[in-house]
């Protein structure tokens, strides 16, 4: 129980899969359930190829929001370095004036300068796919989770950690990543987006919906769609269920992924 004690007083629960299946895993529960920003107008995603596959998670999150609130403005920026971990990113530099996000090219291909007083409301950060649990890198994960959270807050934004998913052929990573990210969120007072738990749910319940490309790590369009649905639900506290945005997926498949995303967010964040 030593690792769990470091999480603080978070409860330990067993998430039961729908349909009476076996438990997904014993999971530490997030202490932070909101970002404190009720409707963020600007997001920055800091991570790696898991974020930029399939036209980028940013675009899919924006489409979820547009489907339910077409007049609500959202400026979303993605900073991705292939294969990168937390320690590859100079987060301080991403907030420097007249640099990242100084302008936006909208969906009509019109370029406009960014005049917002605050560069980003929320920074969503993800480490490399193994880094939080790798014996040589897990301490780096802990160190940089703290450093980056402090940097983001110093610039007036809220830090959020994105819990990545297990490799398809290494399902034991799910519980390991869940514990590592939950601990980091609790220790740094940051919201955690439980994408990895949603992946495990769909793999267990609907293995016919392919979430992974051939390398068994990176997401298919369905995988990115699921990750975006979880992100939308966690950040905006809105259900993606019934959304008209399907990313071109079969509507029945999209609905299954929406349900999995919302159920996972409600369980993990106790909403």
From TrEMBL:
Keyword terms of this UniProt record: Signal
Do the record's keywords include Transmembrane?
A: no
What are the coiled-coil residue ranges?
A: none
The record's InterPro entries line, in alphabetical order, gives: SGNH_hydro_sf
Cleavable signal peptide:
1-25
What Gene Ontology terms describe what this protein does at the molecular function level? Answer: hydrolase activity, acting on ester bonds
This protein's record includes keyword Mitochondrion: no
Highest taxon, organism lineage: Bacteria
- Return the protein name: SGNH/GDSL hydrolase family protein
* Native source species: Roseomonas indoligenes
Q: What is the lineage of its organism?
A: Bacteria, Pseudomonadati, Pseudomonadota, Alphaproteobacteria, Acetobacterales
């Amino acid at each position: 129980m030593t690792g769990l004690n470091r999480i603080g007083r978070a409860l330990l629960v067993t998430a039961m899969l729908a349909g009476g299946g076996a438990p997904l895993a014993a999971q530490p529960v997030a202490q932070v359930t909101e970002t404190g920003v009720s409707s963020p107008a600007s997001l920055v995603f800091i991570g790696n190829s898991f974020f930029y596959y399939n036209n980028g998670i940013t675009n899919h999150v924006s489409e979820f929001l547009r489907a339910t609130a077409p007049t609500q403005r959202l400026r979303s920026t993605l900073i991705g370095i292939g294969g990168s971990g937390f320690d590859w990113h100079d987060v301080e530099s991403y907030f420097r004036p007249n640099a990242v996000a100084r302008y936006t090219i909208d969906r009509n291909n019109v370029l406009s300068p960014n005049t917002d007083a605050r560069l980003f409301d929320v920074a969503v950060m993800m480490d490399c796919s193994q880094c939080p649990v790798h014996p040589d890198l897990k301490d780096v994960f802990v160190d940089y989770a703290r450093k980056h959270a402090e940097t983001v807050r110093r610039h007036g934004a809220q830090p959020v950690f994105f819990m990545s998913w297990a490799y398809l052929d290494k399902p034991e990573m799910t519980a390991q990543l869940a514990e590592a990210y939950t601990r980091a969120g609790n220790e740094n007072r940051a919201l955690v987006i439980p994408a990895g738990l949603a992946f495990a749910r769909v793999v267990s319940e609907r293995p016919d919906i392919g979430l992974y490309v051939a390398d068994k790590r990176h997401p298919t369009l369905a995988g990115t769609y699921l990750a975006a649905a979880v992100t939308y639900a966690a950040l905006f506290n809105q259900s993606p269920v019934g959304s008209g945005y399907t990313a071109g997926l079969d509507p029945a498949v999209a609905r299954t992924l929406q349900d999995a995303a919302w159920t996972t967010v409600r369980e993990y964040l106790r909403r």
